[in-house]
């Protein structure tokens, strides 16, 4: 019998939410400030993707002896 981490899905949603929030705020601040360009938008999006990968929790499963 295997048991999976019950908090994993919530932590993945939180990681995605934080990454999306960082991307949205960075893009908005950059657009208002100096003007958003395609390379800068890709850089902010890449930074948010890297944050998501860092915050993404590992999937853990435990095999229980019968």
Question: Can you describe this structure?
Answer:
- The protein has helices at 8-32, 38-55; strands at residues 2-4, 61-63.
- The chain is rod-shaped and about 60 Å long.
- It is built from two helices and two strands; from the N terminus they run E-H-H-E.
- The protein starts with a strand and ends with a strand.
- The model has no long low-confidence stretch (mean pLDDT 89).
- 5% of the residues are buried.
- A two-stranded antiparallel ribbon has the order 1-2.
- With 66 residues, the chain is mainly alpha-helical.
- The longest helix has 25 residues, at 8-32.
Share of residues in helices? 55-70%
Strand order of the largest sheet: 1-2
What is the tally of helical segments? 2
Counted beta strands: 2
Euclidean distance between termini CA atoms: 7 Å
Characteristics of this structure?
rod-shaped; two-stranded antiparallel ribbon; 66 residues
């Amino acid at each position: 019998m295997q048991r999976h981490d019950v908090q994993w899905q919530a932590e993945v949603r939180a990681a995605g939410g934080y990454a999306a929030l960082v991307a949205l705020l960075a893009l908005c601040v950059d657009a208002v400030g100096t003007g958003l360009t395609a390379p800068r938008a890709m850089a902010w999006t890449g930074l948010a993707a890297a944050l998501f990968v860092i915050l993404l929790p590992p999937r853990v499963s435990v095999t229980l002896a019968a």
